[in-house]
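Title: Prediction job returns without error message
Component: structure pipeline
Severity: low
Priority: P3
Assignee: unassigned

Description:
Job completed but the reporter wants confirmation the result is attached to the right record. Sequence as submitted:
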Amino acid sequence: MKSCGSGPCHDSKWLDSSAHHVLTQYIRIMKLHRSILEQRLNKTGVYRSQHQILTTLAEHSNASQKEIAEYLNVTAATIAVSVKKLEKGGYITRIVDQEDNRYNKLCLTEEGLDVVEHSRQFFKNVENQMFLGFTEEEFQVMEGYLERIYANLSDITAKTTTKKEDS
C-alpha cells in the first residue's frame, strides 16, 4: 500500500486546525441526528424522502406533483416513484384538478396525516433534547455563525457558476 507521505493529501496543519475539528464535529452531529430520525421514520414504514413529500403536502394541501417537486427543489421525475409508493401505501390520494383535468392534486389521507403529526412530535422532542441547556443568547450567536458559513459556501457556488458561464 502506497503512503501519501507529504504533500496536499497529508497536510497535518489543516487536519489539526480548529476549522477542521469544528467541521468534523458538525458532520458527526448531522450523521447522528439523521440516524436518530431515520430510526424513527423506519418504524412508520415511510422512508425519509417519502416523509419529506408528506410533510410538504401537510403544508401545501392539494399541490400537484410538479409543485411538490418545486418546494423540495427536485424534479417531478425524482419524486414520481415515491408518490406512487405513498399512494399505494394509503398515505396520499390523487384528485383530478377541476380547472385542468390533465393534472392531479395530491392530498394526504388520514393515515398520511397521522404519520406527519406523530413524526412532527418526535422531531420536536429530538430538537428539545438536542438543544437542552442552550440559552437564547447562545442560539443567536450560533445562528450568526451558521449564517456566515452558509454565505461563505454560497459564494463558492456563485463563483463556480460564474466560471462555468465564462467558459
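Comment from assignee: result matches the submitted record. The radius of gyration is 21 Å.
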